[in-house]
Design brief:
By secondary structure, the protein is of the alpha+beta class. It has helices at 2-11, 24-35, 43-47, 97-106, 112-127, 141-144, 163-166, 168-179, and strands spanning 51-53, 60-71, 77-87, 91-93, 109-110, 131-140, 155-162. The strands form 2 sheets. A 5-stranded mixed beta sheet has the order 5-2-3-6-7.
Length: 183
């Protein structure tokens, strides 16, 4: 990968032997390894026995989870916040696992629409809940820095399953809880 990055540096008209760029290929390689670490993450190891039997039936919501990803079309970052909720069906998950699940899928080359669905599907797989709701709001540098250059644009995506899709009261509660105190 370092040779490829060095080639990119040459292609854009820079000198890869310039002092400030000599170690850039190595740093870029390390950055991409971290930013795409979701490909090697194991969902079962992330969850790591943090599923607990519980009779609760109320909504569980983790709001404002910071997330960073790379647009698969331009390899530019997009970033924002994920809101993830579920209605338990006799099982709950340790709350720190929800942001970790978000990271598993965010740390891949992505489109926001797929990312939103993957987070929801992972929770369905590990919990078999009565319903799951995921909403992501993000800013895409591929729209802000190039192309249409719209700095204030945000993309909202949602993935609603089970009672979040079929029960208007559950869906409204989810949306109201997200709005409460939101930035």
């Amino acid at each position: 990968m370092e040779e490829l990055i060095q080639g990119i540096i040459k292609e854009i008209g820079e000198d890869p032997s310039r002092e400030g760029l000599v170690r850039t290929p190595h740093r870029v390689k390390e950055s991409y390894q971290f930013l795409t670490s979701g490909y090697t993450a194991d969902l079962n190891k992330i969850v790591n026995d943090a599923i607990f039997e519980e009779a609760t039936t109320g909504m569980v919501l983790v709001r404002d989870i910071e997330m960073y990803s790379l647009c698969e079309h331009h390899l530019l970052p997009f970033f924002g916040r994920a809101h993830v909720a579920y209605i338990p069906n006799k099982k709950i998950i340790g709350i720190s696992k929800i942001p970790r699940i978000v990271d598993v899928f965010a740390r891949r080359l992505q489109v926001q629409e797929r990312l939103t669905d993957q987070i929801a599907e992972a929770l369905i797989e590990v919990l078999e809940p009565l319903g799951v709701g995921v909403i992501i709001k993000a800013k895409h540098l591929c729209m802000m820095m190039r192309g249409v250059e719209k700095q204030n644009s945000e993309l909202f995506t949602s993935s609603l399953h089970g009672v979040f899709k079929t029960d208007p009261t559950t869906r409204s509660e989810f949306l109201d809880l997200i709005r409460t105190g939101s930035h």
